[in-house]
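User: Second chain of the day. Same drill as before.
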Amino acid sequence: MGMEKIDRVMNEVIGYDEALVTKEKLEQTGHDFSAQKGNVKNVVEKLHPKRQQIVLNEIRYETPSTSTFVFSKKGGGNLPPFQAGQYINLFVNIQGVSTARPYSISSSPFIRDKYELTIKRAEGGFVSPYLLDQVKLGQIFESSGPMGSFHHNPLFHGDDLVFLAGGSGIAPAMSMLKALRAVKKDFRFHVIYSNSYENDVIFINELRNIAASDSRFVLTEFLSRDAGPDYKGNRGRLTREKLVNLINDPLTKMYYICGPTPFNDNAIELLVSLGVRSGRILVDGNGPPKNPETLDGWPSSVKKGTKVVVQVGKEIQFLTEVGEPLLNSLERNGFTTENACRSGECSLCRIRLVSGKVFSPAEAKIRKSDKRFGYIHSCVAFPTENIEIEL
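Assistant: Same format as last time:
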């Protein structure tokens, strides 16, 4: 790799230029960064905190089902940097139940004094209705630092990008778009955006305005259910035939996929049918499957809603329903375990399964070492019979 390309990539890293200036100043006095060895831990904690306090400063109405929540750092100052497409884990306590949910950051990574989280009401959800209906301005929350591997990598992903978004999956796409427009002269970013109802399309006016004024950005709209007579986008769902017509030279592009699980699965299937290799497809985790009983590998004799016993250690046990993620039922019963993505990617929530069986979908990404020693990822583990676990 040429030095010119390395310099181009590094110049896009937030804080890189400032670090070079500091390094040059230190060298003039005969010092370098090794003199700050004792401060490394504090510096790392500022950049990648395990926990941080953030304050809700603004709530913006987006659609009947969606609002954008604007958070700043408690006490002021810059928040930890993030890559466009990453998320933070937001911790809440609702009716005595301590839980958390990961939400993608929709704001630009070059705006350091705030995070914007665009949150859509989840049907039958627990956390999103609380956030949309009950939280107040000035309320203080705890969150993780930014995390996740779903982001644009300028070194490997190139500049010809396609984002397939469904519903609130547009949030990380908006962050990527803002970042690309801020730092890149030559790029192509094509967002293929699918929704159900015309009055519930997030950021649609902003996206249309950018598409009309910036030739580097292309927006393709799909509505599957409700489309008025003035709607000019595509009707119905994205199909292989439509994708072929939309994308030239599909094997040369980098693809990002974010939306509900069925949307993601369909998008992956369509891209694979075009011959796109897996290394050019990046999928955002979006929580446990809502209907695990419909997935391959689910035991046919097990019915969703059946009651099973979860025993924690040798003494404590509680009842849960088949079909509920184990992490959710643990939280409802007062148990906590470290977690972040809640979709099987990060493995922070893994616990040991002592006895009994759980269903772990493919997205659980159970490693060989986990299987060998009996560990499961509780966020995407579904008990199918009485189980005993160790936290």
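Residues 4 and 195 are 41 Å apart (CA to CA).

User: Great, on to the next one.
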